[in-house]
Amino acid sequence: MLLVCRFRVSSPDAFVARCQRALELLTAQPGCVRGALSRSADSDDRWVLTVEFDSVVAYRRAMSPFEVREHVVPLLSEALTDEPAMYEPLLTAVDGEVERQVSLLAEDAFTVRLGEAAGPATPR
């Protein structure tokens, strides 16, 4: 799973320090693969924090420790909310080799209402 949080930042130095602490905490959690903070090349006040996890379960567990809830959750709550933040990789590529990933979503994802889904018995 890929967490993508976009920010509009007015105090870059303080923001980078907070993101550094967030990345230290998150990448120390089991199942966290990597993280990065990037600044837009087009707009100096736009930033994006991306963190990759092995699974949804790894993401949820990574967000559970007290220090993460104390430092990371408040930072993430400041992210721009006009787009989704969690994505699942479907194609990955290394050295020119592209690999298709099995979706973690159920076949009926996005077609059922809350409380109707039984779980991902058959992935997409």
TrEMBL record:
One of its GO terms (molecular function) is monooxygenase activity. SUPFAM superfamilies: Dimeric alpha+beta barrel. Residues 13-61 form the ABM domain. Pfam families: ABM. Transmembrane segments: none annotated. Keywords: Monooxygenase, Oxidoreductase. This is Antibiotic biosynthesis monooxygenase. It comes from Lentzea tibetensis.
